[in-house]
Amino acid sequence: MKRLLLYDKNMNQLGAAADATDIERQRRVNSDYTLSFVVPMSSDDYNIAQIKGHVKDDRSQYYVINDRSRKREGVKRMVQFDCMHVMFKLADFKFPYASYIEEAFGVNIATLLNSISAATNGKFSFSVDDKFDLQDIKDFGRGNCLQALNYVVEKYGCEVEPDNFVIHLKKQIGMDRGFQARIRKNIINVNFKDSSRALVTRMFSQMKDGLTFIGLNASNLTQEEYDLLNAVPGAIVGGIIKVNYLISPYAGYWSNTTNSYYDGEIINQEIEDPLELLKSTRKALREQEVPAIEVPLNVADLHKIDREEPEIFLGDTIRMFDSEMQINDISARVMEIKEYPYDPGKQPDITLANYFLRDYDDIIADLDKAKQIVTDIISGGKVRTSAFENFAAQAVHDINNSKSEVIYDPRGIVLQSKVDPNDQVVLSSAGLYITLDGGQTAEAALTAAGLVAEKVVGVLGNFITIEIGSGSNVFKSDQQGIYLGNQSFGSAPFRVNMAGELVATEADITGMIHATGGSFSGDITAYGTITGGTLIGATIKTANGGTRVELSSSGNLVGAYLDNSNYNIIVPNYNGSPAYVLVVGGGQKGSLSASGNGVTLFSLGTAFISASSDIELNANGNVVVPNWSRVYGAGNIQSLQQALDNKVSASYVDSNFATNMAFDQSTRNLKLYSMSGSLLATVNIP
């Protein structure tokens, strides 16, 4: 592409910037991505180029026209257009409150990037080109989408490579393409600076509320870190880290008669996890354990005239050779490129460094400086003047409007209220105290002996260990949990671990208990009503002994007891089927059971069926008895069989029943005869 192309705010092409000169593009890792150009005010290009319009460069990247600077030099009237890459339009999208994350654990980077993309209605998308570890997230989504992206970059340690509205995230952009910068070949100008001002060989650290990683298991250290700390007496005791610092492997090289170590410290109030603090300390030490190298380099871009020559890309690692400047095969990354893509006579200026501060925060502050006071006044090791002026102006305003004044008296430094002189904060070498009566009494005091206050209001932080008392009469809280009554968590009679699992020897609870499960041993006494649920494997009695109803898990029995010798029980398996068993005097007297043939009522003694009215036997089939000899009338005098036998015997019939008769007309007598012919009776009929 020979010329810059101009587009309107809707990205409709308007034409080419034919009269554009001094076209300069500046890119920096995780920072500036700008383009500027100059046109005459008399040119048509000036009338075409619009504020919030767009330009497209030779890399097919779009930039937003943000600023126009007009200047006159005699009769010449020129205007400079300053543009930023379209990626920074993310600052124009407010991150929605509904997507704000107060706290989450083990979050994938894609989850946060997808929420940013959704906040832009899909206009921006993200490509994660490397694998990033899951991270714990806190307070994500305040402000705009560029701030949200910056949070992701800092949290996951990414580097950003935008391709218009598709933003690539990598662990490190660029690569080693074999580019070499050599004197008398392509080096035009070079400045070589190495600085040990920020050299650190022992890095201390603190997190929220002044806590450290003291108390972590030493297994969290690398082998190199462990060996270096273990060489320090008391640094690791019983496999536990007892110090809040890491030592550089280069400490021995840099040590001298004055300094055994070059100490540094990081304090990050956003970190609450000791393990995360250890990782942050490790990273900070690696960045500062060698002298910082910065090499502004002006090289001939041979790629412009010979396409076989390697091209320099942002983030690439290159090698430098200039023995006269004591640059002997030094490798460093291209952290910044200022190039002139449309002017073959101008060579790019590159800045090489072994470490550069990321400063999207600075860019966000610049974009948003009308809305907030800039707090990050350092950018790439240089003081950002405008930010410093804003900061200083705010500081002066705060001091002038303060409601306190500073007094030096024999007690020490006194902060005294302008509203009430009796309200004071007194600071001396012995400690600090707060008074409301001019120093007569102290409302609160802090000395080497400890803190004294009537009450402490607020959150008391994230301590490694809290201990009250001594010996077995102790309350302790540490990374294992909360426990009382013993110095050891596992032996304490009362303890709660971090998973919420409670162990207690005795509890008197007056309120409600809500549980999803549990187990009991020993006696349980309940007053009131037990409602709902399922009881399995229990014995339930209406009384502990004597007359009672009992459901027993032993034998799976249900029984009604007069006493332990006289009772009725339901047995689940009685000769292969459930049965109702009756026990009197300790012995079984009968049962009622069922089988495939029907229902059996069995008595080991006499079975009595009694009714105050009739007894009816009603069957669709037969009523069966073993034989009629087993059926007796009242008094057991004669069986039914005996009665039947007597009714039908021949002698009985012969002597008692008339089978023939004869009538004598002369005498008018009716004579009755038996079967054998014997005269049984004579009846005269008149």
Automatic annotation (TrEMBL):
Residues 122-365 form the Tail spike domain. Gene3D superfamilies: 3.55.50.40. InterPro entries: Phage_tail_spike_N (IPR007119), Tail_dom (IPR010572). Coiled coil: none annotated. This is Tail spike domain-containing protein.
